[in-house]
């Protein structure tokens, strides 16, 4: 299967949570807190933590503005709110992209990285952000996509920056 990591690699995603979520706080794969994905990748666990630590060691809180809604995914079934261009958010994406590539990680959907990066917040049922809203991204987290080998769960394993976020 294309989404399964190669042997020795583990699935991770670097995100900026909109809804505060602490390290070790597990959630189901279909029940994500609101967040902006910075990069989805596979990497050896220690290397992933090292890459994220290097990329996000000087992470400052960012205020980003929510743009219009869009439909992503197969047949447009994933409803999202785009994030307007923000140089700081783009820089965070580029730093983790560079660190993961340098550490031998496997990048998912490389065409959605670099200039193809389209930051967004997926709509989660009734939970969502709205066009024109300003959102504080207080930190960046590394999320284990299969803690203890169980792909039904997700769990933040590292956090950089202030770690507090709010949708206001």
Automatic annotation (TrEMBL):
Q: What GO terms are given for molecular function?
A: ligase activity
Q: Which SUPFAM superfamilies match?
A: LigT-like
User: Could you identify this protein by its name?
Assistant: 2'-5' RNA ligase family protein
Q: Which organism is it from?
A: Sinomonas puerhi
InterPro entries documented for this protein: Cyclic_Pdiesterase
Q: Keywords on this record? A: Ligase
């Amino acid at each position: 299967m294309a989404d399964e990591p190669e042997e020795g690699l583990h699935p991770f995603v670097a995100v900026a949570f909109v809804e505060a979520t602490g390290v070790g706080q597990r959630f189901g794969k279909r029940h994500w807190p609101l967040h902006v994905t910075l990069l989805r990748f596979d990497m050896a666990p220690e290397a992933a933590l090292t890459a994220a630590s290097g990329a996000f060691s000087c992470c400052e809180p960012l205020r980003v503005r929510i743009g219009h809604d869009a439909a992503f995914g197969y047949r447009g079934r994933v409803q999202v709110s785009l994030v307007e261009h923000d140089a700081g958010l783009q820089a965070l994406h580029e730093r983790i992209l560079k660190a993961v590539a340098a550490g031998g990680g496997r990048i998912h959907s490389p065409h959605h990285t670099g200039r193809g990066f389209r930051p967004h917040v997926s709509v989660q049922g009734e939970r969502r952000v709205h066009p024109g809203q300003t959102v504080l991204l207080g930190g960046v987290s590394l999320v284990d996509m299969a803690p203890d080998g169980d792909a039904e769960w997700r769990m933040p394993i590292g956090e950089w920056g202030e770690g507090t976020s709010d949708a206001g």
